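FAQ: What does a multi-protein file look like?

Like this. Sequence, then tokens, then the next protein.
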Amino acid sequence: MFWGDWLDLRVRLIQVIASGLVSPLIYIVGFGLGLGSALDSAMKPSAGDNYLQFILPGMVALSSMVISFGGTTFSICGDRLFTKTFEEMLLMPVHPLALHIGKMMAGVVRGMLTAGSVILVAVLVTGKVWSFLNPLFLLVLVLNCAVFSALGVIVGLNVKSLESVGIYNNFVIVPMSFLGATFFDPATLPIALKFVVYLLPLTYTSIGLRAAAYLPLTRFPWYVVLILLAVAVVLSAVGARQFAHQQD
């Protein structure tokens, strides 16, 4: 399952990598360089030397989320609604969990490829290579890709048209892009807003990536890894069950 998606993906590597790079670059220029210059004179961020450095891990999280979710969802939708090859896949003698994991792994690869391009920008901007390439940073990033790839599988199996994908994107992914601690420290929010923000998986990814990049290991919030892993496992179980009962 994964190998088939990889054969299709490898001929579009440049397109996949570039597609998730545009929005983060706009945010880096607009918020990091534009707004950041004003914020740096008024406050010091909780992680990183300046506001630009503060949002860079969030941009990595954002790009990996968008591509992992969108790429997985559209891949399954294409098989179900257009090429009509999804029925053949369901007839294969493969366990539903294996089908789900195969699709999810393809989404993880998509997300990591795009995140890699944002990491390259972050390294060039900050000059901190190890901050963005250390094992803990990459572990949190992989878990984030797994969470949103698993979510993309579930959405791809349930939508009836491409227009429905747009609804999920507008009401789930876009709000999470701004509320998932990508541009701010959630610890500074009022209690009511904290409750909402900490319900979002992207919040834990942003917190974890920021800590892995700039803070000492003793201050790393290990609960981030446990929460993202738990969410990925739960979504995988739901996706596998959906595969087992899918009828198209």
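And here is the next protein:
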Amino acid sequence: MISLVPAPPENLFADMNSENKRRHVFISHHHADDAEVDKLTSLLKQKGDDIRNSSIRAKPANQRRLDEGQVKDETIRRLLRMKISWAQTFVVLIGKETHSRPWVNWEIEQAEKQNKRIVGVYVRGGTQADIPPALEDYSNSIVAWNTDSIIAAIDGTANEFQGPDGSSRQATHEAVAVTC
């Protein structure tokens, strides 16, 4: 008997191994660092990962409405809470203006309230002085711009605290283990 069912391709399950997997993240950032969000997702995709980012990136017309106060803060907070809830891991891009952004601190506090894994990633040129206060209080890991370090921090296989150059540094808070 001749089978008319084609054999499955050899790589049918290639994307299901532990090295290449889907990651649901919320990337908190200052809107001036939108290009850095693209660089981060591209960096992680180069390793074969499927990155799903639920953060808000306002188009110019929407950014104008936000800047003019046409959208109520409670509307923004409700939307952000939903998007943070969807993510497995909450990532903060640490850039030159990040520490001064009130929405970034608010988002970090919401991620903490939702028991999310919180990871800081220095963008190129970011410094320890750029770390938002809430990130210092609640982060599980802060790492340099290095693919392996970022993936390990997102996955929770490493809880490192690094400087922008990748050197080790002390966490400013005690780690708390959470068991679900």
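Q: Is there any per-entry metadata?
A: Some entries carry free-text notes. For the entry above: The chain has one domain: 20-155.
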